[in-house]
Amino acid sequence: MPPNILLITSDQQHFSTLGAINSRIRTPALDRLCAGGTRFTRAYCPNPTCTPTRASILTGMYPSQHGAWSLGTKLFEDVPTVGDGLGASGYFTALIGKAHFQPAASRPGMESIECQPVLRDLEFWRNFHGPWYGFDHVETARMHGAESHVGGHYAIWMEENGLKNWRDYFEDWPDDPAKRSRIYANRTWDLPEELHYTRWTGERTVAVIEESGDRPFFIWSSFHDPHPPYLVPEPWAKMYDPADMEPGSLMAGEHESNPPHFQKTLEDDPAYWEEAGKGEAIHGAGCHLHDEAELRKNMACYYGMVSFMDQEIGRILDALDKSGKAENTLVIFTSDHGHFLGQHGLVAKAIHMYEDLLKVPFIARWPGRIPAGKVSDDLQCLVDLAPTFLAAAGCPVPGIMTGHNQLDNWRDGTRARDSVVVENHHGTRSFHMRTFVTERYKITVYRDGGDGELFDLEDDPGESRNLWHAPSAQPLKSRLFHEFLQATLRDEPMRMPRIAAA
Question: Alpha carbon of 208 to those of 136, 324, 346, 446: distances in Å?
């Protein structure tokens, strides 16, 4: 019998924020998944921003291949998805929560329903539940925290649960800066916990599991947090004491051997970023200097957001058990990319390809098929999810998918990867880069220019010593360039096999 597939994702979650490995945070539901499955310590995103990675999860292709190569771009609806493949084999497919497959603006030829004023057009959303990107059923919303692009199915749910004045709790559209400042003043949101979008995602995922019937299901339960802004209702806002937090830090002199934009994160020089970005919006461009006390408060709130999400994940797992379907359900938990909480002097997400941003938490559970309580350091990439899901369901994996089928690795440890490629492209030559990661080494190459990064992750796991220009590392760099090119050649898409000589 084909397995059910439940994909649970967070947004922008640092790989260390699991109670199973971090005593400062409480995540009993995720710890329960770890105990019942395998936790992978070296899982990577294919791009450290939302849209490109989410589109890669759907398509099994890298951003440069599926077309949604950056934030502010769109995954066009004609690109084949894992939902298409599973649906053709009889699966019920559903997306609950954040999508972010489309930009926050719309223009002819690149229409988006994930933008204003569509997001607040609740009549549109009452009549829209799919099909969309291979999902039979869709319930989605776009915002983080109290951001102004609230709306979609979440706003309808708030109204159905009695919160007719939900707009009072969110930023205005168009923006009212004074109202925005009041909302975020102390990181504690007066929106009732039971009407928060984290509760909505958990509740609606449970409902879809219960309503899925006898068909095998593929459900993507997509949580919005802990993506900033740092804002959460009580009791989560005060769950953690900022004094107990241990943010990351910058080692003295570590940026001296890095490209110039690393050092510029420690300076207030807008003119540099304007010139380097060529007018493009670049996440992480700018000064990252931060107050230590504020960073601790942000971190405490971030942990609270994770724990709130974990509570809802627990509800989902309980519902899966109650349904009697848990034994035949492949459950994956991961995040779309990582996050900086002071590591290397950085905050949030950025153009700096450190492990904190590229690595993600990753847990796979399938009772009787995937070992329970195991920890693996085998390389994983989120681009592998689509082909692996298809393989688990007994469906053919199309040649256009360039991710690797990890099913045997999850089940018996057979290695599927010896390297991972991570793309990052912001529309400028200055910040168009790719990173190649092997079991030991990591190299980042920029389009144009002679700078880059090379780290020995075994001898320097904190990535504080860039070997790019070190004379002794030049043979290693040459070897990694060759391996990088070989990996790129291996992962070319092949929509159809060759069927004739000509």
Answer: 11, 14, 39, 44
CA 89/CA 98 separation, integer angstroms = 25
Q: What is the mean pLDDT of residues 313-342?
A: 98
Q: Evaluate whether 91 touches 217 at the Cβ level (below 8 Å).
A: yes
Number of C-beta neighbours around residue 386 at 10 A: 28
Q: What is the DSSP letter of 398?
A: -
Question: Residue range 27-47: average pLDDT?
Answer: 98
Measured over the CA atoms of residue 302, residue 307, residue 308 and residue 313, the dihedral's sign is positive
Amino acid (1-letter code) at residue 89: S
Look at residue 161 in the predicted model and tell me its pLDDT.
98
Q: Which long-range contacts (CB under 8 A, 24 or more apart) does 73-79 make?
A: 73/103, 74/101, 74/102, 74/103, 74/110, 74/112, 75/51, 75/101, 75/102, 75/133, 77/132, 77/133, 79/55
- How many C-beta neighbours within 10 Å does residue 66 have? 25
- pLDDT digits 0-9 by tens, 431-470: 999 999 999 999 999 998 889 999 999 999 999 999 999 9
pLDDT digits (tens, 9 = 90+) for 124-166: 999 999 999 999 999 999 999 999 999 999 999 999 999 999 9
Distance of CA 222 to the CA centre of its chain: 10
- CATH dotted code for 4-250+288-417: 3.40.720.10
Nearest one of 348, 114, 134 to 229, comparing CA atoms:
348
- Closest Cα to residue 408, out of 430, 386, 425, 392? 392
The 10s digit of each residue's pLDDT in 371-413 is 999 999 999 999 999 999 999 999 999 999 999 999 999 999 9
Give the whole-angstrom CA distance, residue 224 versus residue 385: 19
8 Å CB contact between 223 and 8: yes
Closest CA to 363 of 339, 345, 380: 380
- Residue 487 identity: A
Mean pLDDT, the chain, rounded, equals 96
